[in-house]
Amino acid sequence: MAEFQEPAAVIVKHGTPCGAATAGNLKDAFLRALDADRESAYGSIVALNREVDVDAARAMSELFMEVLVAPPSYTEEALRLLSRKKNLRVLRCSVERESGVRVRSVMHGFLVQDAMDVEPQRLERVAGPEADQGGTVSDLLFAWRVVAHCRSNAVVLAKDGALWQ
Q1: 153 part of a folded domain
Q2: Number of domains into which the chain is organized
Q3: What are the Cα distances from residue 123, in Å, to 100, 117, 119, 146?
Q4: 51 backbone dihedrals φ, ψ, rounded to 5°
Q5: Would you tell me which of 56, 110, 127, 162 could form a disulfide with 27, CB atoms 3.0–4.6 Å apart?
Q6: What is the pTM of this model?
């Protein structure tokens, strides 16, 4: 979720995004992310990149989630509503892009690798027609930002700023 400037929601199950979307507000971003795979979202972790307001909290109140993580701000009303959900862990975090290295545990040790750079200015069209008919380039950049956080050999389908199935 830290990869996006606009309001974004990411739904994670077993360490992999099963829903992700951006929108004009956090509630709509969450609902669009949820539409990507409602079944996998059950018992998930939801990560948001904006202050959680009561509209977003109401939208999330129907979903059973294990963890909700967002920037260090929840409105009082949203926090009151979320605290009623049984077994929900509500966490605060900073929203900063990952930089430097990633560390992964492996059997009897660990793997250290450079974090993947997902900056669109590094992309260069080298063949084929100009794109962005129907959002092609923006969908590619959205998918690129999400797939950077998936496991090896991942495939991400995106359309209109959301994961698509």
Answers
A1: no
A2: 1
A3: 20, 11, 8, 16
A4: -55, 135
A5: 56
A6: 0.77
